């Protein structure tokens, strides 16, 4: 299914755009209201855009009392992005939510991080709610797959990959930072290969559904993320330039999938990993080394009952809970 | 509120001093209220550029563009027959229910004033520019008194009028000090124009709020 990336759409300001998605992901909600960072908060670069919004939001109480009821009237399945500055803050917000999917923002590059690890935050939230929990991870770690395994073990139901990565842009005349905070989160086309690599690595590491996002602007971009292992795809920066992107990307995605022999885009999930099938045995060993596979993970799906990776034929939405499935029936 | 987005064809690209008047076919888009803006696709760039409507000739929309960066330069390099995607009208325009209007503009900030002038029946205007060449843009509206730096618009501005102004931030601050209830059209970097990106936040009534949703024309004090 097709979602928006958190912070890239206000469903109340643009309800038609939200309704063109299979689910709407809110801007991150923190316990206390936040005005966000001082302007300037966005800057375009040649390869993407930088933002330093800084989690502007009305705070948990006002969100629950005012924003959430209005969002429910839209009739679109809701994902609430939850943020905080300590594991307990995340967990408190999770405990107050009902009938939504939760995305834990564990990776905003524009604010200070909680002292706990991603897995500790997920564990705290898992203890606080039975709602589907997606962990949104940063690709800017040494090994995102290791984090993915840790949050899976801690009880996450899915992964959202990826958040923005830190970047800097300077004014061409003054050579001073263009953003008020100097450094901000880089999104758009430059993030796309980074997102693909993270989805690729996590698909091999865990058996969780994955929302792939990062620079998706076309149906082919979306299909590539699915091929790398994404179950769902989210649109971010492209929505700023093109509010009609959801319908267009959906259309393009279906056509791109069919053109490659997949009746449904979801059938392409993970096919990027099947590449090794065509290699001879010796090359496969080289590839195995290069990718640092576990020693017993077969590269050829015919080697064992399992395909590579291990969930090739699984229903793409499995494990995501009923909220995670589009209520209005689009694939 | 997302209004409409359409691919519009360029009718004309005319120099106005150092600026460019970009005229496109209206397509299915409404011109909206003076002071409202449109997001114009900037060819080859990731993000569209916010432009207030300068003129609304029959069947056309016209925007005054200052080629100061890669996006605006790409817009000025368009030619007749080229297409660009345009979203709008967006935001809140000027309140036209005024008794003794005076238009005040500075530099490229005069962009929304020609259309505003037409809507108000050609009231007097005071326009400030940094050079005589920039001041050629004053020809876009009638009854314009022009001042050129080092003279500022605030030095020539009568204080007993309903001021509707657009210009650089220091000019707007100076106008507001003299006429606290002036309607001021502000500017901020903007990725989307329809409330999605939160990039255009400015301090309004002591809070950071989105200029594209609350403005760009603000009657109350901005901070």
Textual characterization of the structure:
The complex is a heterodimer of chains A (331) and B (223). Chain A is an alpha/beta fold and 331 residues long. Chain A has helices at 15-19, 60-72, 87-96, 118-128, 144-153, 192-205, 219-228, 237-241, 245-259, 281-291, and strands at residues 2-4, 24-25, 42-44, 49-51, 78-82, 101-105, 133-137, 158-161, 165-168, 183-187, 210-212, 232-235. Chain A folds into 2 domains: 2-271, Aldolase class I (TIM Barrel, Alpha-Beta Barrel), CATH 3.20.20.70; 275-304. In chain A, the strands form 2 sheets. In chain A, strands 1-12-11-8-7-6-5-2 form an 8-stranded parallel sheet. Chain A has a 4-stranded antiparallel sheet with strand order 3-4-10-9, with no helix packed on it. In chain A, helix 5 (144-153) crosses helix 6, helix 6 (192-205) runs parallel beside helix 7 and helix 7 packs across helix 9. Chain A is globular, with a radius of gyration of 19 Å. The N and C termini of chain A lie close together (6 Å). Chain B has 2 domains: 4-90, Translation factors (Elongation Factor Tu (Ef-tu), domain 3), CATH 2.40.30; 101-222, Rossmann fold, CATH 3.40.50. In chain B, the strands form 3 sheets. In chain B, strands 4-3-6-1-2-5 form a 6-stranded antiparallel sheet, with helices on one face. In chain B, strands 9-8-7-10-11-14 form a 6-stranded mixed sheet, with helices on both faces. The chains are: A alpha/beta (331), B alpha/beta (223). Chain A binds chain B through residues 7-10, 13-14, 16-17, 27, 35-36, 38-44, 46, 48-49, 51, 53, 56, 188-189, 237, 239-244, and chain B through 1-2, 5, 41, 45-48, 70-71, 85, 87, 188-192, 194-202, 207-208, 213.
């Amino acid at each position: 299914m097709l979602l928006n990336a958190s912070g890239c759409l206000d469903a109340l300001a643009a309800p038609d755009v939200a309704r063109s998605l299979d689910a709407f992901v809110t801007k991150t909600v923190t316990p206390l209201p936040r005005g966000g960072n001082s302007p300037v908060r966005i800057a375009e670069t040649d390869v993407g855009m930088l933002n330093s919004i800084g989690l502007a939001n009305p705070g948990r109480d006002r969100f629950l009392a005012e924003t959430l009821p209005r969002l429910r009237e839209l009739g679109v399945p809701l994902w609430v992005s939850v943020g905080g500055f300590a594991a307990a803050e995340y967990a408190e917000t999770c405990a107050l939510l009902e009938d939504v999917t939760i995305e834990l923002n564990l990776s905003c590059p524009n604010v200070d991080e909680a002292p706990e690890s991603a897995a500790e935050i997920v564990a705290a939230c898992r203890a606080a709610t039975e709602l589907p929990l997606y962990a949104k991870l940063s690709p800017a770690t040494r090994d995102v797959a290791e984090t993915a395994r840790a949050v899976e073990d801690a009880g996450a139901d899915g992964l959202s990959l990826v958040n923005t990565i830190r970047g800097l842009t300077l004014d061409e005349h003054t050579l001073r930072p263009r953003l008020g905070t100097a450094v901000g989160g880089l999104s758009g086309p430059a993030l796309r290969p980074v997102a693909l690599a993270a989805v690729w690595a996590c698909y091999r590491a865990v058996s969780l559904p994955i929302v792939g996002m990062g620079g998706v602007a076309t149906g082919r971009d979306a299909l590539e993320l699915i091929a790398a292992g994404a179950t769902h795809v989210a649109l971010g920066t492209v929505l700023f330039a093109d509010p009609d992107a959801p319908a267009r990307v959906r259309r393009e995605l279906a056509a791109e999938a069919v053109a490659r022999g997949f009746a449904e885009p979801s059938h392409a999930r993970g096919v990027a990993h099947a590449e090794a099938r065509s290699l001879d045995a010796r090359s496969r060993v080289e590839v195995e080394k290069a990718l640092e596979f576990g020693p017993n993970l077969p590269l050829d799906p015919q080697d064992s009952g399992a395909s590579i990776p291990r969930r090739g034929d699984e229903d793409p939405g499995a494990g995501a809970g009923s909220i995670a499935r589009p209520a209005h029936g689009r694939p | 509120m997302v209004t409409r987005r359409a691919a519009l064809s360029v009718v004309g690209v005319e120099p106005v001093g150092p600026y460019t008047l970009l005229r496109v076919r209206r397509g299915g888009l409404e011109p909206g209220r003076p002071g409202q803006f449109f997001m114009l696709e900037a060819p080859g760039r990731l993000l569209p550029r916010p432009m207030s409507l300068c003129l609304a000739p029959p069947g056309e929309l016209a925007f005054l563009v200052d080629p100061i960066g890669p996006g605006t330069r790409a817009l000025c390099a368009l030619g007749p027959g080229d297409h660009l995607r345009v979203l709008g009208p967006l935001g809140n325009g000027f309140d036209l229910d005024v008794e003794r209007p005076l238009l005040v503009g500075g530099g490229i900030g005069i962009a929304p004033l020609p259309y505003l002038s037409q809507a108000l029946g050609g009231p007097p205007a005071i326009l400030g520019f940094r050079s005589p060449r920039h001041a050629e843009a004053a020809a876009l509206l009638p009854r314009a008194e022009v001042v050129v730096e080092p003279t500022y618009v605030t030095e020539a501005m009568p204080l007993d009028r309903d001021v509707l102004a657009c210009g650089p931030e220091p000019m707007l601050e100076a106008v507001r000090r003299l006429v606290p209830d002036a309607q001021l059209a502000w500017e901020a970097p903007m990725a989307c124009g329809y409330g999605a990106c939160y990039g255009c936040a400015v301090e309004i009534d002591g809070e950071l709020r989105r200029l594209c949703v609350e403005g760009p024309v603000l009657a109350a004090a901005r901070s």
